[in-house]
Write a structure and sequence with these properties.
mainly alpha
Length: about 425
C-alpha cells in the first residue's frame, strides 16, 4: 500500500491511514487476547481435573517444546511461502484447537492427556505464527514508520496481556466452553483480518531447501554484529533480570499484600510497557538510539534492584512499572534494529531464531530466579539479577560498540 508524503507527516494518525497495518494490529491484538483467555481457562480447568501443580508446569512445557524444536523450520517456511497464508493458517489451526477444547468440555471427555495433546497442536501453530507475524510489519508500512509501527504492535501484545486474562476469568463464570467458543471465533476473525493485508514490495524469493538455507538465520546473525548484539543483549538481560517467578514470594512474605497485591504486582510491568509502547508509537526515537537501548537495559536492572529492597507495595509497583517500560523500549529498538538490518528474504529465518532465544529467555529467567532463591533467598536472587542486568549493559557497550554508535534507525533492506 503506497503512502503519500502527507500521510507520513504528522503524529500517530499516519499509521492509521495504512489500512493493512490497522488490519494487522487488530489481528495481533485479537489473537494474543484469545491466547491469554484460553490460557486462563486451560489452567483453571486442568487444575480442577487433576489438582496437580506439576500438570500446570506441563501446560507450559508442551507449548515451549515446539518453539525450540520447530523454530528453524518455521523461519524457513516464513521466507519460502506467503507470510499472510502462513499466519492465517496458524490462526485456523488454533481455532480448531479451541473448538476441540469446547467440544471436549461440553461432551465431558476431556482428560489431562487430551488437553495436553490439544495444547501441543496449538503450541505448534504458535511456533510458526509468532515469528512470521513479526515479519509482516515491514511489509505493511513504509520504512519511515517502521519503528513507530513496531511500538504500536507492542501495544497490541501488552493490551492483550492486560485484558485477555481478565476477560477470560470473567467469562469462565459461564463455563469453560464459553471461553473456548469465544476464542474459536476470535482466531477465525484474526485469520480473516490477516487476509485483508496487502504487502508492500515483492514476496521473498523461493530457494531450494538445503542445510545452508535452513540454518541461514543463525549464520546471518553470527556475521551481523548489530543484530547479534541486539538479540544477545535482550537474552542475557532477561535471563538475569526476570522477577516474575518471585512475585508471589514478595506479595506474601515481604509486602504482606495477599492475592490482590500479587495481581497488582503482575499487572505493573505490563501497564508500564503499554504506556511506553503507546508513547513510542507517537514519538520515534530520533537520536542516539544505541545509547538509549543500553540506558534502557541499565535502568531495567536498576528498577529490579529497587524492587529487591522495597518493602512498600506502592514503591514495588512503581519499580515494576519502570521495569516494564524499560523492557518495552528495549523490545522496540531491538526489533527495529533487527528488521531494518535484515534483508526481506532472510527476515523469517532471522526472526525465528530471535524468537527461539528471546521468546524463551523469560522462562529460563524465571527458572534462574527460582533456583537462586531456593538456595540463597528471594532478595539475593532479585538483587543479583538487577546487578547482572546492569553489568550486561556495560559489557555489551564495550563488546558491541557498533550498537553504541547507532544514531538513527534507518531501513537497510536489500
Amino acid at each position: 500500500m503506497s503512502a503519500t508524503p502527507e500521510s507520513l507527516a504528522g503524529p500517530q494518525p499516519a499509521l492509521l491511514r495504512h489500512r493493512s497495518f490497522v488490519a494487522y494490529w487488530c489481528a495481533r491484538t485479537a489473537t494474543n487476547g484469545g491466547y491469554q483467555m484460553q490460557a486462563v481457562a486451560v489452567g483453571w480447568q486442568i487444575y480442577e481435573l487433576t489438582g496437580s501443580a506439576f500438570d500446570l508446569g506441563l501446560v507450559g512445557l508442551v507449548q515451549f517444546f515446539p518453539v525450540v524444536v520447530l523454530g528453524i523450520v518455521a523461519g524457513h517456511i516464513a521466507d519460502r511461502y506467503d507470510r499472510r497464508v502462513v499466519v492465517g493458517t496458524c490462526q485456523v489451526i488454533k481455532a480448531l484447537a479451541a473448538a476441540a477444547f469446547a467440544i471436549g468440555t461440553i461432551g465431558g471427555f476431556l482428560s489431562r492427556d487430551v488437553m495436553l495433546a490439544i495444547l501441543f497442536v496449538s503450541g505448534t501453530a504458535r511456533a510458526f505464527e509468532t515469528p512470521t507475524m513479526h515479519t509482516l510489519v515491514p511489509g505493511v508500512v513504509p520504512p519511515e514508520l517502521l519503528t513507530r509501527a513496531i511500538a504500536a504492535s507492542a501495544t497490541a501484545s501488552q493490551t492483550a496481556t492486560i485484558c485477555g486474562p481478565a476477560i477470560g476469568g470473567l467469562m469462565y463464570a459461564f463455563g469453560a466452553a464459553t471461553v473456548y467458543l469465544t476464542c474459536t471465533a476470535i482466531f477465525v476473525m484474526a485469520s480473516a483480518l490477516i487476509s485483508l493485508i496487502v504487502l508492500r514490495g515483492a514476496p521473498p524469493a523461493k530457494k531450494p531447501v538445503t542445510m545452508e538455507t535452513l540454518f541461514a538465520g543463525f549464520s546471518y546473525i553470527r556475521h551481523n554484529r548489530v543484530v547479534l548484539g541486539a538479540i544477545s543483549l535482550d537474552l542475557f538481560a532477561m535471563l538475569l533480570g526476570g522477577v516474575t517467578a518471585l512475585l508471589p514470594v514478595y506479595a506474601k512474605d515481604v509486602l504482606v499484600a495477599g492475592p490482590w497485591g500479587l495481581g497488582l504486582l503482575r499487572s505493573a510491568p505490563a501497564i508500564g510497557a503499554l504506556l511506553t509502547s503507546g508513547w513510542l508509537a507517537h514519538h520515534q526515537i530520533e537520536r542516539r538510539t544505541g545509547h538509549v537501548l543500553f540506558a534502557a537495559v541499565a535502568v531495567f536492572g536498576l528498577a529490579t534492584i529497587v524492587f529487591a529492597f522495597s518493602t512498600s507495595l506502592v514503591l514495588s509497583i512503581a519499580a515494576l512499572a519502570v521495569y516494564g517500560a524499560c523492557d518495552a523500549i528495549s523490545v522496540v529498538i531491538r526489533h527495529s534494529l533487527v528488521q531494518t538490518r535484515t534483508p526481506n528474504e532472510m527476515l523469517g529465518r532471522v526472526m525465528a531464531v530471535n524468537f527461539m532465544f528471546t521468546g524463551t529467555s523469560g522462562t529460563l529467567g524465571e527458572f534462574r530466579a527460582g533456583s537462586v532463591a531456593a538456595g540463597f533467598g528471594a532478595f539475593t536472587s532479585v538483587l543479583v539479577g538487577g546487578v547482572g542486568a546492569i553489568l550486561v549493559a556495560l559489557l555489551w557497550m564495550r563488546w558491541f560498540p557498533e550498537i553504541a554508535r547507532i544514531d538513527k534507525i534507518q531501513a537497510q533492506h536489500n
